[in-house]
C-alpha cells in the first residue's frame, strides 16, 4: 500500500540518525538515508509541521541472547548528524529503549500539538523504527513509513519489516511521494 493522505497535523519522527549509529555497517548506504531524512525534515519545517529528532543513549535492561552492539557510548556517539540541520523549534527525544514513545513523553507532546499522524524515518528499520511505529499505531496515530529514508544493519530484517510488518501498522511511501503530498495539500 502506498501513502494516500497526510493529516493536517502530521509530525516527522526521525530515529537514531546520530554519529554512533550512522558509523555502523548498514544494509543500504547510510548517506542516502540521511539525505532523504533531511529532505523530509526540510519539507516538514517549510510547512510548519512538527519535527521530532530522536537519539538513543542506552538499551533496555532486560536479558537477551544477542549481546548489545555497543556497551559504552564514547563522546559524541549520541550527537545527531549535522545534516539534519536541527532547528530550535524541533523537539528532541533521548530514548533508552528501541521505541521512541517509552518513558519519553513523546505521546503527550504530540497529542498536545494535536498531531494525528506520524511519518517515521531513520535507523534501524527492524528495531527503533518498527518499535516506534508499533507504539504510534497502538497509541492511535496514523503511521506512515518513509521507506527510502531508513535502513537496517540486516537486509533480511529490513525487508521483513517493510514487506510484512509495516503494511499492518500504516502506509509506506518514498520521500518524494511524501513531500509531493505535503506540497500538494498545503499549497
TrEMBL record:
<protein>
    <submittedName>
        <fullName>Nicotinamidase-related amidase</fullName>
    </submittedName>
</protein>
Amino acid at each position: 500500500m502506498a501513502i494516500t493522505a497526510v493529516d493536517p497535523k502530521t509530525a516527522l519522527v526521525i530515529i537514531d540518525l546520530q554519529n554512533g549509529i550512522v558509523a555502523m555497517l548498514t544494509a543500504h548506504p547510510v548517506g542516502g538515508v540521511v539525505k532523504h531524512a533531511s529532505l523530509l525534515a526540510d519539507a516538514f519545517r517549510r510547512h510548519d509541521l512538527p519535527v521530532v529528532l530522536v537519539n538513543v543513549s542506552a538499551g533496555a535492561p532486560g536479558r537477551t541472547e544477542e549481546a548489545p552492539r555497543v556497551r559504552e557510548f564514547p563522546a559524541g556517539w549520541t550527537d545527531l548528524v549535522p545534516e539534519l540541520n536541527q532547528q530550535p523549534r524541533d523537539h528532541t527525544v533521548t530514548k533508552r529503549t528501541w521505541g521512541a514513545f517509552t518513558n519519553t513523553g513523546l505521546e503527550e507532546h504530540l497529542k498536545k500539538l494535536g498531531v494525528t499522524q506520524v511519518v517515521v524515518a531513520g535507523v534501524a528499520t527492524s528495531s527503533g523504527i518498527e518499535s516506534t511505529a508499533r507504539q504510534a499505531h497502538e497509541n492511535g496515530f496514523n503511521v506512515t513509513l518513509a521507506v527510502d529514508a531508513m535502513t537496517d544493519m540486516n537486509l533480511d530484517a529490513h525487508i521483513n519489516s517493510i514487506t510484512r510488518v509495516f503494511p499492518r501498522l500504516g502506509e509506506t511511501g518514498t520521500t518524494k511521494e511524501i513531500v509531493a503530498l505535503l506540497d500538494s495539500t498545503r499549497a
